Each structure stands twice: as C-alpha cells, then as structure tokens.
C-alpha cells in the first residue's frame, strides 16, 4: 500500500514559497506572512495563521503538512546539554542535541537516517544508511529545539550540522535547510553562526566553495596520513588525503575563509607528538583551525580514550608548529552523547520487544 504523504512546508525556501504562491494565483507577499507564522510565532496548525484568508489556509492544508517530527524521548545532562530522540513519519528515529555555550545555544542536527560512510569509531554508521532527510525534516529539528528553548525564554543562536549522517551526501536538502534557517524572515540564524561538517566528500567541497556562502566548513580529518585515516575512515580510500587537501586549499583560496579540521584523539592510534608533527606538516600552509576531540567511549567500538597528558602534549606540539588549535569542550558525557548512541539504544529496545513478542506468540 502506497501512502500519499504531503511534503513539509518547511522544505521550501522563501523564494520557492513565493513562486508556489504565485503559481496558485496568490500574492507573493503572503510568503512573508507564512514565514512569520512558521518561524517567528512557530504555530503548529495552518488554521492558526489568522491573517491569511480561509481559502489560502485551506490551500496550504491541502498541499503541505506541519507534522515533521514526534518526540520519543529526551535526556538532559548535568551541564545543560539536551539530547532528543525524534520519530519521523515512517517510524525511523533520529537525534538532535542542544548544547550550551558561553556565547549561546547551539543545535546539532542530523541529515540522514543512519550513515553509509563507515567511520570505525562512530555509532551512527552501525546499521548503514536508511535514507536521506528532507530539508523540512532538518529544519523541524531546529524548530523542535527552539520550542523547548522558548519555554526558557532563550533562542538557538548557532547550528552545527554534525549529527547522524554525511551532510554532503544530502547536498540539495542541506542547502535548502541552511537558507531557510538563515533567512531574515525565518529563524534568522547568521551564516557565520552555522557550521557544516563533512567526512571529506571532495566533489562537494568544490561545490560548497563555488556556492560562495558564509557558512563555516569543518572537515573530519582524524589522521595525519593515509594509512591511519583509511583505517579510521574508509572514505579515505575513495578520496585520499592528497585530493582532500587540494579541495580544502581550493575552498580557502576561493572563499577567503578559514577551515576547521576536526581531529579525534584515539588512544595509541593517532595521538602521539609524532602524529601532531605530521599533521602540522600536512595542513601548515592553510588558513585553518584544529579542533581536538577527546573521543567519547562508544560501547560498540574498541577505541580507548587518550590520556589527559597526551591530549595536552598533542596540543602543545601543534601550537609550537604554529597551528591554531584548541581542545573541544565535552558536552553531555553522562547522557550517551556520542552520535547515534541514543538511536542505537532505542533500536535495541525495539528489537528486544519484537523478539519477546514473537516468543509470546510461540508459547501461546
């Protein structure tokens, strides 16, 4: 049985909504009113858009839905981090996180259900890729987070696209999402307050640079050479470091913007001063920043945490080589904060209930 699902209205950029309205015989200025209801007043029903005619509200109801996500659960850390598990219309589950910083509240969003990249340290890739999210499903994550922040009279000031999935493998939806939340009539989150992280999809780094936006770009590097990176990140076999660095240089030269390299520290794998020296040699000519990440323990994986002394020795080696580097502050270490862990726990619970249900049927 095929279910005819209406698209989310959150899928649409402001300009696309203007064009759609004109195609239906409506005035394009109505797009501004609709965006105000969606992203400023944050209504849940088209009927609440009271300065629109009933015929227009009915037209919107006939063609779109506002039901993007349903909250399954959320966990709150002692440091204020909030991790949500949301259900999509097809029953798949995704994660979204609110992180508290001294400069504001950051929302970390997911772009795919699962992931096919296969990084060996990540829980998100367990089970593979199920599907891409639509732009509206990504927008809905920020809206759901903002609605919780509304209760505290706070706002989401920053967004990081670092949740489950590889954003550049869902490139069109990613750009639609970014330009919706950035729009001055929308959530009005500044481009320089939004960071997108990629595992290194080289052709899309070129496309990203050519888009000439002001969004921040982060590249998950995690290794100073091909041998270690291919072991940690199989994608390196398709896009080895020489190609990745060439694309990163193109981005920096084309946009004039700094690039961030994310470098997870894994005990005994990539965390020695010699690795730091090799990393400095690899990226030393780039306008860049290195974000060192003490790895979260993931039960499904075998990597161990780098010691505190080794973390600071790695940092000092980079800084002595003239590399701008910092250690990422940890968030939500007490609530299964690593990407994919809450979703994995939910999936395991569902599998257990299914097995128990089958056993009960057999016993009867």
TrEMBL record:
Source species of the chain: Ammoniphilus oxalaticus
Residues holding [4Fe-4S] cluster: 115, 119, 122
Subcellular location: Cytoplasm
Protein name (database record): Probable dual-specificity RNA methyltransferase RlmN
Chain's role: Specifically methylates position 2 of adenine 2503 in 23S rRNA and position 2 of adenine 37 in tRNAs.
Entry keyword set: 4Fe-4S, Cytoplasm, Disulfide bond, Iron, Iron-sulfur, Metal-binding, Methyltransferase, rRNA processing, S-adenosyl-L-methionine, Transferase, tRNA processing
GO cellular component: cytoplasm
NCBIfam families, per database record: rRNA_mod_RlmN
A GO biological-process term: tRNA methylation
Reaction it catalyzes: adenosine(37) in tRNA + 2 reduced [2Fe-2S]-[ferredoxin] + 2 S-adenosyl-L-methionine = 2-methyladenosine(37) in tRNA + 5'-deoxyadenosine + L-methionine + 2 oxidized [2Fe-2S]-[ferredoxin] + S-adenosyl-L-homocysteine; adenosine(2503) in 23S rRNA + 2 reduced [2Fe-2S]-[ferredoxin] + 2 S-adenosyl-L-methionine = 2-methyladenosine(2503) in 23S rRNA + 5'-deoxyadenosine + L-methionine + 2 oxidized [2Fe-2S]-[ferredoxin] + S-adenosyl-L-homocysteine
Co-factor remark: Binds 1 [4Fe-4S] cluster. The cluster is coordinated with 3 cysteines and an exchangeable S-adenosyl-L-methionine.
InterPro entries: Aldolase_TIM, Methyltransferase_A, RlmN_N, RNA_MTrfase_RlmN, rRNA_lsu_MTrfase_RlmN/Cfr, rSAM, rSAM_sf
Cofactor(s) the protein requires to work: [4Fe-4S] cluster
EC number: 2.1.1.192
Gene (name only): rlmN
Residues the record lists as binding S-adenosyl-L-methionine: 165-166, 197, 220-222, 296
Annotated catalytic residues: 95 (proton acceptor), 339 (s-methylcysteine intermediate)
Keyword Ribonucleoprotein: no
Predominant cellular place of this UniProt entry's protein: cytoplasm
């Amino acid at each position: 049985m095929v279910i005819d699902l209406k698209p989310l209205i959150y899928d649409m950029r402001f300009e696309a909504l203007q064009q759609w309205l004109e195609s239906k015989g409506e005035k394009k200025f109505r797009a501004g009113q609709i965006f105000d209801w969606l992203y400023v007043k944050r209504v849940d029903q088209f009927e609440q858009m009271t300065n629109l005619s009933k015929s227009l509200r009915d037209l919107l109801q006939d063609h779109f839905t506002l039901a993007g996500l349903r909250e399954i659960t959320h966990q709150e850390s002692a440091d204020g981090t909030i991790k949500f598990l949301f259900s999509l219309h097809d029953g798949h589950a995704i994660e979204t996180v609110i992180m508290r910083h001294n400069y504001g509240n950051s929302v970390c969003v997911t772009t795919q259900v699962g992931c096919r990249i296969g990084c060996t340290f990540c829980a998100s890739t367990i089970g593979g890729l199920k599907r891409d999210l639509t732009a509206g499903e990504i927008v809905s994550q920020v809206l759901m987070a903002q609605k919780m922040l509304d209760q505290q009279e706070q706002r989401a000031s920053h967004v990081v696209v670092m949740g489950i999935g590889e954003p550049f493998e869902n490139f069109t939806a990613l750009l639609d999402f970014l330009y919706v939340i950035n729009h001055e009539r929308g959530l009005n989150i500044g481009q320089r307050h939004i960071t997108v992280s990629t595992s290194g999809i080289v052709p899309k780094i070129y496309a990203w640079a050519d888009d000439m936006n002001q969004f921040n770009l982060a590249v998950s590097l995690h290794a100073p050479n091909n041998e270690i990176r291919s072991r940690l990140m199989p994608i390196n076999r398709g896009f080895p470091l020489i190609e990745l660095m060439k694309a990163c240089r193109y981005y920096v030269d084309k946009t004039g913007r700094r690039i961030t390299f994310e470098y997870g520290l894994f005990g005994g794998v990539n965390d020695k001063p010699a690795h730091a020296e090799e990393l400095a040699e690899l990226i030393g000519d780039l306008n860049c920043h290195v974000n060192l990440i003490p790895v979260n323990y993931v039960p499904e994986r075998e990597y161990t945490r780098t010691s505190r002394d080794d973390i600071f020795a790695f940092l000092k080696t980079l800084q002595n080589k003239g590399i701008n580097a910092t250690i990422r502050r940890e968030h939500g270490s007490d609530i299964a904060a690593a990407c994919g862990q809450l979703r994995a726990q939910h999936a395991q619970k569902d599998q257990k209930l299914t097995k128990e249900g089958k056993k009960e049927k057999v016993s009867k």
